[in-house]
Amino acid sequence: MAKTVAVAEQQTNTGMQQLKSLPERVSSFLRDVRSEMRKVVWPSRAEVQSTTGVVIATVFIFAAYFWLVDNIIGRAVEAILGVASK
Questions:
Q1: Residues 48 and 84 in one domain
Q2: Do 6 and 33 lie in a common domain?
Q3: Residues 47 and 76 reside in one and the same domain
Q4: How many structural domains are present in the chain?
């Protein structure tokens, strides 16, 4: 039973220790975030504009492709159903 009480006290102390160390852990985390953010290489305005243009063009190309494929498959299904219903 003494062993159970000792284990329970250790768990309680661990919880309190974690609670007491919270401000220090948050501070350390924020310092690490600041350090990592200094390492980030941000794209220039020209790079952002060119990649945005590529993305928009690609979206329109894929939209046209899927529209074309959808129309072809839709007309094929209508033709098959038309033949099957006669």
A1: yes
A2: yes
A3: yes
A4: 2
- 14-47 pLDDT, tens per residue? 778 888 888 999 999 999 999 999 999 999 999 9
DSSP string, 5-24: HHHHHHHHHHHHHHHHTHHH
The model's pLDDT over 55-79, given as tens digits with 9 standing for 90+, comes to 999 999 999 999 999 999 999 999 9
**Separation of alpha carbons 74 and 58, rounded Å:** 24
pTM, rounded to two decimals: 0.55
1 three-class SS: coil
